[in-house]
Amino acid sequence: MESWRQWENFARAQELGQIGWWRMDTTRNILTWSAENYRIFGQPVGAPQTYETFLAAVHPDDRAYVHEKWIAALRGEPYDLEHRVLVDGQEKWVREKACLEFDAAGALLGGFGVTQDITDRKHAEIALQWTVRRNELLTRIAARLLQSSDVQGAVEELCADVMQFLDCQAFFNYLVAEESGRLHLNACAGIPEDRAREIEWLDYGVAICGAVARDRERIVAENVCASADPRTGLIASCGIKAYCCHPLMAQGRLMGTLSFGAKTRLAFNDDEIEVMQAVSQLVSMAMARLRMEQALLEADRRKDEFLATLAHELRNPLAPIRTGLLVLKRTGAQGPNAVRVQEMMERQVDHIVRLVDDLLEVSRIRSGKIELKRERLDLRDLMDQAIEASQQFLDANGVSLTVVRPEEPLMIDGDPVRLVQVIANLLSNAAKYTPSGGHAEIAARRVGSQAELTVADNGVGIPPDMLPHVFDLFAQVDRTLGRAQGGLGIGLALVRKLLRLHGGQVEARSDGPGKGSVFLVRLPLASAFAQGGPQREGGRSARRVLIIEDDDDVVHGLSMLLRAQGANVQTAYDGKRGVEAVQSFHPQVVFIDLGLEGMDGYEAARRIRALPEGRDAIIVALTRWGGETAREHVKKAGFDLHIAKPASMGDIERVLDFRR
User: Fold this and answer.
1) Structural domain boundaries of the chain?
2) Residue-wise pLDDT tens digits, 57-68
């Protein structure tokens, strides 16, 4: 009984350790296995085994190696190896170790050995090795892109590394061509040159790359040769069976697509797709960096050109002035020549004065000599711009912000740049004097004929004796606070001055140190709004206007112009949402960007015109091109009007006055 328990414990130990034993009788070619060995090889316990049946279970790629090691072991060499076996078509890893057995006369009987299932460990080792190689690959790519001044040119070289690593045979890199609104093939591999020329240009929505560019989402295609998806036709014609395409995005901007294809297998695994995504992100960041560097170089070039031009323009009149002075000195400033010289010198001096006036105009903001450029504005838009400008500073100081926007438009007459500066200065002040983790709030409302805007915080507060002086130049609440971003005390003084120029007021309130502060701004509403109705100037009634445009700057600028004319404005950022908005909003006027991604402007206009709610709407095309040719083109497509970006106030008035 005791021996049976010991044998049972031994069997359990084998099972837990995933280690089986075996004995090979070479004289009779009989292989004896333990129960655990049968389990490891996936065969029924007791099934007859020979050396040949064992070898048949070994992975075909490893059989020659295992046989060679066994023959060497029979000659006395160590038998200790790792190899793969196939169990029900699945690959497993085992380690085998054995020693030879001899009879009393020293004749070879065979061998005794153990088999250990090391599949989990081996997979972990392979995964670790793959991870190390992946990280090395991404590090090389990142370093190469960081050092490269020609990211687009470097794509072909780095993608060759990626293809080798992923065991794939093709890649495609399309870039957005801004001037045409299409995709242009920047680099590729794995297809003939004549085929590359055929697919050099691609429209949004066409094939997989075009669909990725349109939707800005990754597409993975498996078993392409058997796919019924029409988008896979292009890659299938190139012999590609597995495909993955990523959008190249940076700061919300589409720059192109990057895709990889395999011709020898039907799918990529998740780890491989993750590598492609990481490479796409690195390429996107490098392209964005290069564009920023180019923009900085361009700005620096323009600055140098400006300084060179300024020096040239100043030097040109100085030379004749010097000559004139010399002539006057020698002639004693007498005679007709002297008069002509004086007139010439006056002209040159006038020229210098005009140049200096232009330079002073740039510095008038700092000197307080500000000339307002008034427009009809919605205070809600000004709030949005100021919050956008201040958000990074608020976040850096750890101050959260709550925004309470009025539902109705609050139209005022003012300089948009200066009023945004006012609101941004108040938000900046809240960020400076509110400890990290604090809170600020910006809100606006209509009070009679005025618009009121408040910026409140729960920061350090204002002592009672400082309240009358917070708007004085160079005033600070407490210079002993040692606040690194306390500034010079100019911001609030500028707020008061700018508001006074606009006929407005600002007031500071606080219950004392540590109790926060509130800044209240009052601005007069524009005359039509002050009397209670959003009426357009000249008696034109307000109209419901929908803007379908995917460029934030265009949407913002156009919305401001329309609201300045009293329009009720809604926006949609793609064609599909625009069509849906027509059904709920019932707009009288619809502005549509022709270059929308996905559903383009032409298709959106056709669908809107087919709706009962859009049948009588005025549909306006927004394009980057002007001129009669562009107008005729969009007119034939069914649009009522055409406007070239950026729209002017005259364009807006023309649209709002238009009747079908």
Assistant:
1) 2-117, 128-367, 375-530, 537-657
2) 999 999 999 999
